Amino acid sequence: MSNKKPRVRFAPSPTGYLHVGGLRTALYNYLFAKKNGGEFILRIEDTDQNRFVEGAVENLIETINWVGLEYDEGPNKDGKVGPYFQSERLKIYKKYSEQLIEQGDAYRCFCTPERLTALREEQQKAKLPQAKYDKLCLHLSKEEIKKNIAEGKPYIVRLNVKAGDNIIINDIVRDKVEFTRAVIDDQVLIKTDGFPTYHMANVVDDHLMGITHVIRGEEWLSSTPKHILLYNAFGWEVPEFAHLPLLLNADRSKLSKRQGDVAVEDYKAKGYLKEALLNFVALLGWSTSDNDEFFNLEDLVNNFSLERVHKAGAIFNVEKLDWINAEHLRKKDKLEILQMLKAELTESKYKDLELTDEYLLLIVEAMLERVSFVKEYIDNSPYFYEPPTSYDETVIKKRWKDDSVDLLQKYVAKLTELENPIKADYEIALKQVAEEAECGAGRIIHPVRVATSGVGIGPGVYDLLFILGKDEVITRINNALKVIPEIKKNISIN
RNA sequence: GGCGCGUUCGUCUAGUGGUCUAGGACGCUGGCCUCUCACGCCGGUAACACGGGUUCGACCCCCGUACGCGCUACCA
User: Fold this and answer.
1) Which of A120, A229, A464, A484 has the fewest Cβ atoms within 10 Å of its own Cβ atom?
2) What ipTM does this complex have?
């Protein structure tokens, strides 16, 4: 291993959104760089003109920024080795491909797509072990090549794979992987449109950008021999490789859009915290030797090592993500949650309510242990934002007794006498009523809860009442007193 | 088909020849706490793909089989 300061890169092709698998690749690159005092570079691999998607790059960068994987060099953040868009480096690839042609390590190929498919079919029919280009154009004379070019015949540039030793990759996560050289095809380096293929652009850029460690998905393992051949042809130092296990659907196929959400922005839209997403995705293929599972970005940086990345693919299992999200949300600062709640409220039907921070903070505290998502501060307790629009019948059935009306009236009477009650006052008052009526507190607590919130679950009643405030509580109980007995009667009849 | 990679509870994983009657987490589940729900706490559930070796001894090493996945494009 070289002792240079590591430089790694995340090199996505802009397909329109950031895939969660891509997020993990980016994360591991970032973590490795930061852990080892190195640099993390973002490079856009936009060499496929057919796959151009409007706005994809902007979207990608926005998402990377949102999760907080700040890159040291890349789009809008120039280092010394830009540009960081491959589409802007065409001249560079051309120069290097010409060098390869001159050296005899690459050659122009004028074969038509028709000939190539015919060749493949023929080889398949003949049951040849593997389909490969037959090097026809390698044997073209200088005159023939010149003539073809003069005639404007389209051509591609192919790597000239010569006979030789097997290619050995010393992968950081997979150890030694060996490929028979005879199996390697004369890979296309430059396409007819003048754009490079992934293989060419990747090797040239990684070298020119000083990349020391190539950390990427396992789908690249099979083409790594081609890359090594290229480094060798140029006489460049081969970087270290670490091929990451794939992220899988529940059926163990490669994680795909068909079987659920794969875009980071989908999870963002659903209300997942970036901390949770990062934490979860980090654990998909990496772990520490102890039992820690809760990590923020800084923890991850401190603990990460490529040696502890394992080899098998991992299923992206949302249940655990939900749990991690809840954990992160609960550990957040209350004022931060307050800001998120306010943002969420502006998107909700309660956007026109004028609620004080003080009021919202009380809700945050009361609901903290009861929510997994910020949205749930609204969805799980609408009664903090509006009076109940209905009353849960199963709760009424179970908790509303014959004496409930009487007890609630007495409680209201007690509350009316109070001045600026604090939480404890609601409790004292309730206990007094219970004592006078010679019944358990629960006999009042449950009816009060349904009457004020409409449901049977939620924070402690005294918290609930205190947050709502005396006037609101009395109004709500009085309203409930008008409708709940009717509901109870109907339930009894049915 | 060829080449490559992989295979521990349902899921994410710990485990590098004896400490494993295989540990943790999520999920599910029983209980405690309790005004409800949740949190928390205590407990339960459930796995070394299979077959051969090597060894005094294999989850761990070797070979094979099965299965899964990836690559096999002028896509990345």
Assistant:
1) A120
2) 0.95
